[in-house]
Amino acid sequence: MRPSAMIAIGLVVGQGAVYLATPLLSRIYSPEQIGTAAAVLAAGGVIGAVGTARLELLLSSAEDEEVRWLTRRASMLMIVMATALSPVAGLILGFSMLDTVFTALTAIGISSVGLSLQIASRLRELRGIAAAKAVQGVGQTAVQIALGVPAPSVGMQTGAAFGLLAAGGVQALSARRGLRALPAAKLKPGRGRQIVRSALMLTAAAAGNATVVAALPMLTQGFFGAETTGQLAVAQRLALAPAGLAVAAVLPVVIAQFGAAARADLGASRAVVIRWLRRLLPLGLVATAALLAAPLVPLSALLGPEWDGVGLYVAAMAPQIGAQLVAGPLSQCLVIQRRERTQLVWDMVRLAAVFGVAALVVLVGGDAVAMVSAVSIVLVLGYAVHVWLVIGTPRSHSV
Predict the structure, then answer these.
(1) pLDDT value for 266
(2) pLDDT digits over 15-34, tens only?
(3) Range(s) of the domain holding residue 26
(4) Which residues fall in a coiled-coil region (predicted)?
(5) Which tens digits make up the pLDDT trace of 285-320?
(6) What pLDDT, on the 0 to 100 scale, is given for residue 394?
(7) Where are the alpha helices (DSSP H) in 214-268?
(8) Is residue 399 part of a domain?
(9) String of b and e for 334-372 (b: at least 16 CB within 10 Å)?
């Protein structure tokens, strides 16, 4: 069976559990509780994205003797960064001590999933990725249902953290043997300085990218409150999260193909990008059209009367989700091309555009749905620019 097919099966199992449980969870948890959990996940996502200093993104283009060195440093960094930054996030966002702990666990889980995915992709150990997709969804859902009645204030957070940590562990175990078979950790003279320089730029870019990903829950929480954030969070669970997992299913295959092409002949990587765009564009267009019709679906009958605004948020995010399905799997191509500066500039410009447009919509009196719609269009334009950068200038850039 092809790796992409195995990953897709794991994805269907995991995401199927999430989907089947959503109506039950929406009746167990209130919008405010789900909104708080979404804020914890958003904060953990930002910290987790920078927790490894993005050293894992260098694995695709690294020499064999560098892989174990990068893996070891990234593993230590993710624990240190989560421990140091989660209390800061908790103070800024007003989390309880328990929610601050969940922020740290979520951050470590996200970092471990990203690191182990890159290792498995480099070593072509893709079976573990497939298993991890199933474990994450099933584990997360089981914990959230189990804690829904006895501990509703922390059930969503606990389930999310458990699913991420379990998925990272499964991927790491699957790649363990291949990692041990690589040469001992060793860097060429001067390579350490190159890695630090690249890591600084990648971390800055990751901070911008992760903040954009977490922007909608944070902006909605800040401008419109926890109940509205809960409505958005359920919409993301129904539409945006599955799209993200679909991208994650394809991403390892794209990384492996694009990385191999880039190491052999950087110009040949352009053909890989175009081939994947042709495959994914029809999927993105169909998904966008289907999600735009979400307000016509009586979701409140399925989720409960408190969730009557979910369909509007799904439709508002439709352009963004369609673009993510097409361009999301190509998100690491600039890094593989060793164009960290270009990646950083793109992330920072996109971040400024998202927050600027959101603030402008609120300033002129727009509601939360209008803000989400405007941000969605900005993200579509950002994806288009990113693809153009990848295929328009496929030349080598030094790190």
Answers:
(1) 59
(2) 889 888 988 999 999 999 99
(3) 3-392
(4) none
(5) 999 999 999 888 888 888 988 898 899 999 999 999
(6) 47
(7) 215-224, 226-235, 241-264
(8) no
(9) bbbbbbbebbbebbeebbebbbebbeebbeeebebbebb
